[in-house]
Each structure stands twice: as structure tokens, then as C-alpha cells.
Amino acid sequence: MDGKVAVVTGGGQGIGEAICRRLAGAGAKVGVFDMNADSANRVAREIGGVPLVGDLTKEADLDRVFGEIAAQAGPVDVLVNNAGVASRKGRDVPIWESVREDWEFVLGINVTGLVLCCKAVLPSMIERKYGRIVNIASIAGKEGNPKMAPYSASKAAVIALTKSLSKELVGKGDICVNSVAPAVIQTPILDQLDQSQINMMLSKIPLGRTGKPDEVAALVHFLSSSDCSFTTGFCFDISGGRATY
User: Can 245 be counted among the known catalytic residues?
Assistant: First the structure.
């Protein structure tokens, strides 16, 4: 990935940080996009990347952030939409106990923010006839986790958006859009869930463990590379055997 410019949302910790490190190690100049300035600066400093601080649900922030990466590194070749939330903290409840704010918070970040980031980079990708977009979905978007309806619905939307966008880009150059559906990965997002909820999800994984951020990053690396030129619109499971279809 020498000479490529990548932006990873939620790049300051967990899966996002692992992806930033993997892509930088492969030669890419990486924009570490995170709401937490300390996290973005730390990771960017350690990998020789560009810290990008902002709220991906706010278009003014996105205009500034993507302007910064363009000015410092060049047009974006790779966008990894990794930023996401599982719930409003402690709000893993049945649908009939959920409130409007639960849905707006999760879908605002996981779906609307993702779409806005795609819109920010696509005109340049189309003009240059090259690009890679990788959307981090979840196995919950295929199977639906109980007491996680907003999250499950948002990740189903990510999978469908990936398929829709990939078809819209056919004929516009070497631009591929794919998604990744992890099962439980050991990251700080688990702090948003009760241990009983985590145990339920682990019980569904035949390999009997959580995944590692580096394992997800390895898959994202391929999907972000020029080698991924005949695969688009697909959702890749990385679920320890939970998904077999």
C-alpha cells in the first residue's frame, strides 16, 4: 500500500487502532480519525500518521477533517468506516423498553455517520477512478442479538448499504466496497455491555473465544489493497465459526 492514503474512523482504539497500525505497516499514510484527541494523537504519532479529530455525525467536522488529510497527505484512496457504538451505555434492553434516544444515538453514529464519510471521499475516488471502502458491520447485523436491537438493525443497514453502494459504483473505475462482520472482538466497546450479554454472545462462537483486533485488521488489509480488485459488495464474516453461510 505504498503511496496510498487511508482514513480509519474510530482509529484511536480497539479494532480501529489495529487497522491503522496494519495499514501503516504496509506503507499507507493513515489518517487516524477519532473523537478523542488524545487517542488520535497517540496512535498517529506512533505510526507516523495524521491525527484527525472530530464528530463524524457533523458535516462541518467532516469537511474540516477530510480537508486536513487532503492538505497533509493527498486525496483519500482508502476509507475504513470502523467507528461505532453498541448502545447508549447500559441500555441493552428489550425493544419494548427502548426509547427514541437509544435508536437515534446508535443509528446516528453507525449508519448516518458512515454514509456521510462515504460522501466525503467518493467524489475524489470517482474522479481518480480508484478507491477502497471497507465498512465494519457485525454478525449481529445478520442474526440479530437480543437486547441489542438498535445495534443489530444498524449493522444490518451497514451490510445493505455496502451492497447498494458497490452497485452504484460499477463502471466508475477500480472502486470496491466491502464489509466485514465480526463476532465478539476484545475491544473497549464491550465496556458498553453487561457481562451476561457478553457471555451470551460468546456462547454462540464455536471457537469459544473472542476475536482479536489484529485478526480483523488482517482481513481489512486485504480489502483495502489493490489486490482486492474483483470483490465488491460482499460481507466477510470473521466470527470464530458462528456464521457458516
Answer: no
